[in-house]
Amino acid sequence: MRVLGVDPGLTRCGVGVVEGVPGRPLTMVGVGVVRTPADAELSRRLLAVEAGIEEWLDTHRPEYVAIERVFSQHNVRTVMGTAQASAVAMLCAARRGLPVALHTPSEVKAAVTGSGRADKAQVGAMVTRLLRLAAPPKPADAADALALAICHIWRAPATNRLQEAHARARSAARPVPPVRKVVR
Question: Which H/E stretch holds residue 28?
Fold first, then answer.
């Protein structure tokens, strides 16, 4: 399984591609950051994020895209930019028919470090160890993108089985005929 992880952001959008299957050593295929100038017009920044993600999709041909789920933050401007970059990544994947998975920061931290409250340094250290890298990827956005891809590789099989079980249960469920009131 080859997954493109995207840590969305307008100034720095982390991207990382990991290949592997659960229970086996994982391989980093590529890691980087799509950068946009903070003083550029928003529409230009979004176009730059799109071009960068499209380039990663063209170059690395992932089978899945894992994106950090945007959550409410104290700074509304920050969360808006993150949400906009996230939507661009989803759009790029949708154009290609690639499945998109959204993972919360705590899910990613728990999958990679064992604790949903891990800090950025712990995530970077575990990504380095899991992918057998010489040093943690810099900046932290790049390490976070790899962590997203790792999380998806490890969680996807269980999530897929659960979704398939729900689908089977829905299709197997038969409508119960209504109870008729007997008048005597």
Answer: strand 27-35
